Structure formats: structure tokens, C-alpha cells
Amino acid sequence: MLFVAAESRMLCGGKWLENPVQTLNLTPKDKTMAPLKIKKGTSKHSAYDLRDPHAEGLERHTLAVVVDNEAGVLARVIGLFSGRGYNIESLTVAETDHEGHRSRITVVTIGTPSVIEQIKAQLGRIVPVHEVHDLTVEGASVERELALFKVTGTGNDRIEALRLAEIFRANVVDSTLHSFVFEMTGTSEKIDAFADLMRPLGLQELARTGVAALSRGAV
User: What are residue 200's phi and psi, to 5 degrees?
Assistant: First the structure.
């Protein structure tokens, strides 16, 4: 037998009525609530898994596109991404064949596998495009990015900035009594890590070139 105290009074028809203590008969099994059996991947705030188990996950891909170096080509490539809502995480372009007047565009994009395939197919249909390579799936590749960091500070912050720069192999390319400009070449993750460490030490500006990438091996 378990006694449960309810509200001692209740309002009914504009008058307060006394509500006696209610007595409930509960078995020992009813006294303890069984824990929720939540499947893996669900939230503890909900008993339902609303995510589609067949949904595709997002992937990061590095695409190398060889195009004619002529006016409007870059705008057409960018327009393909923006017009269809594709995200560009990084974009670099420069002429790599002066005699053939061809440029290499390196694009880092994020999307589902089906979206990535659509991007590659649509890039290949642009007339000035000669080659489209997905370096992420074609094999091992090398990716590098150049970044410049302007860090201002004095005292211990200045000393700590120099110490961290030495650890990350960043070069000092400009120095004043109150600031440094560091140059670093490395992966995007390395540059992100160095930037996170420099922010509390006085990071004022950051410039990045974007990813440049090549496939590894003889081919």
C-alpha cells in the first residue's frame, strides 16, 4: 500500500473545495519505472530515431579540373556550383601550361556521393574543360596550402607566439616591435590548428591560398 498526497484544495465553480488524500494501490512492479530502451543513434531526449537509415553521408572531395585559360571559364565553373547549391570549401586556380594556355583549378567541395558524381559529370560537359580528376578516389594524393598570419602582442605572448611558430615550422616573413607575420605551408588541418593557438596570443589577420593538390606516383 502506497499513499500519494494530492493537491489539498481545488477550485470548482469559483469555490475552493477540499480534496482528500487519495490512496492508490500499487504493486511492487509498478513502483519502479522500467528504463527506456533507446537504440544506438537515437537521442536520449526522444524515444524515436527520426533519421533516415539509408541517407548518404557527406564527404569531402578534392577535384582537379584542367581548363582553357580564357575569359569566363572560371566564372562558368563557379556558376555551376552556385547555381545548383553545391558548396565550395576551397578554390585555387593558376595557369600551369603557358604554351598550351591551360589552367588548373583545384576545388575542395563537400557533398553526398551522388552529389559529387553529379558535379564531376556536369564539369565534364563544360566546353573549355579538358580533364576532371577526383583526387580523393583516384588514389593517394598530396595536398598543401599556404597561409599568412599577422599576430600582434608583447611580452610573454610574443615569446609564446615565436615558440609555437618554431614547433609548427612557420617562418617569420615580417616583424615589427608589436607584430609578426608568419608564413606556413601544410595541410588545412595543420593551418587550422596553428590559427587556433594564435588567436589567444593576438591573431589579427589570416590569409589562405586554398588547397593545391597532386596525385602521388608516376602517373
Answer: -70, -10
